[in-house]
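Suppose you are handed a protein chain with no further information: no name, no annotation, nothing but its sequence. What can you learn? This example shows the usual starting point.
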Amino acid sequence: MFSIIQAAGWPIYFLLAASIIAVALIIERFIVLRKGKIVPAGLLERAVTSYQQRGIREDMLAQLAKESPLGQVLAAGLRNYRSSREVMKDAIEEAGRAVTHELERFLTTLGTIATISPLMGLFGTVVGMIEIFGSQSPTGTNPQELAHGISVALYNTGFGLVIAIPAMIFFRHFRAKVESFVVEMEQQAARLVDVVHGERFDFSRQPGDRA
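A reasonable first move is to predict its three-dimensional structure. Written in structure tokens, the prediction is:
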């Protein structure tokens, strides 16, 4: 590996730094963006049961907000349970925007790495081409400089693509996960608004069931 880095020349260090950052971000996002951690199963039902049986208490809202991003959204709505439907929905939407921003944390960096890695590889290719042309002299071609220039050009091009392809795949994967989480949180928040305003109570009923 060290011999490959030496053959690739100094431009490869930028790509190595980008690859380390990309791997760290991918691992961190895999740990954070878990469904059980973002939208825990049964959280809405527990929040509604607590609201109907014991009313709204600040300690209950604080505990709900700590549980998960979905809990933050539901707690924002329950804090405004005495307000109109529109005000409650506005509070939920504001909390949802903050939660979405947090869920998308580091994704911009990962997308940037996926975009610029081929460009950094191209930069290394240009450096290698310069060394290739530098190997030419009036007395002939220096084989060692020529070989090193070719190595720099090819290794940097390859490394740039090797980094960019997985980074782009995971970037799109995490973006899709965030979007699905946001949609699910919106649906559960809408159900909460319906419950609070007396329009929906039965969670056991499935769509299409007859009364």
